[in-house]
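Hello, quick one for you while I still have it in my head. My current little project is about how a certain protein chain folds up. You're getting the sequence in one-letter code plus the fold written as tokens. Would you mind checking whether the tokens look sensible for this chain? Here's the protein in full, and shout if anything looks odd to you:
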Amino acid sequence: MTAHSQLAEPPVPQRGHNPVRKLLRRMAARRRQQRDAAGLRTDRKTQRRRFRVRLKKRKAALAFSAGVIGLSSAAMASPSTKQAKPTGIIHLPDPVARMPAKDLHASEDFKQALIQEEGVRNVVYLDVAKLPTVGVGHLVTPADGLKVGDKVSDDTILDFLHNDLKEAEAAVVRLVGDLPLFQHEYDALVDLVYNVGEGNLSRRKSPRLNAAITAGDYGAIAAELDYHYAAGQMARGLVYRSERRARIFTNASYENPRAASGVIIRGSR
């Protein structure tokens, strides 16, 4: 997979025209259409019924846990000790766990962050490496049948994004092997592959990253997610993107670090 270079900040939208926001709305609309086609859309009545069922199950679990605590306390107490009723909230175990990368897919939160980072171009242009590019950093191939100056629709851009993400996801599986990941850790690695290319993450080019993966050292993996150079130049856009990637990996925080620092986005990719 080829790297998606980002030398500068994503392009500034023209007044009254924000291609990123427009594409995100179209992506949400397509997602709703896909759910409808699969028969997964539920009305409010069904949602309320499911909520009541979940609430009932949770209350049952809490009651069971409270009973177990009460029995355990009674068994340990002396005959003269008055049994106190269990009080307070019982915290159930967090069901979220690390999973094999092959069982994960890029989350919607990550897709939104990726589109914000890459920007959106409806017209084919030449990137810093003089390669024809369009959409969300999609590198045009002969099979696309496009040339510089051609315009594409939002649906075509989303199709390109879908296929590029599938390639990046497969590359992450090859990179980490059997190492289990949280969803946010997986998302950060998908972003890394999408941004710098699988070839730059080889054992020869990224030995410390691969050593950390082999050792199962998640802290060391997080420390190897910074890539600040493109075409031999320090890229401000890559600095912020690396910071965002690290926050996603370590804190599951998908927010744009530029907003927190008050940076005004200028320039183009």
About this structure: Residues 32 and 41 are 8 Å apart (CA to CA). Strands lie at 99-100, 121-126, 132-135, 138-139, 180-181, 229-230, 233-234.
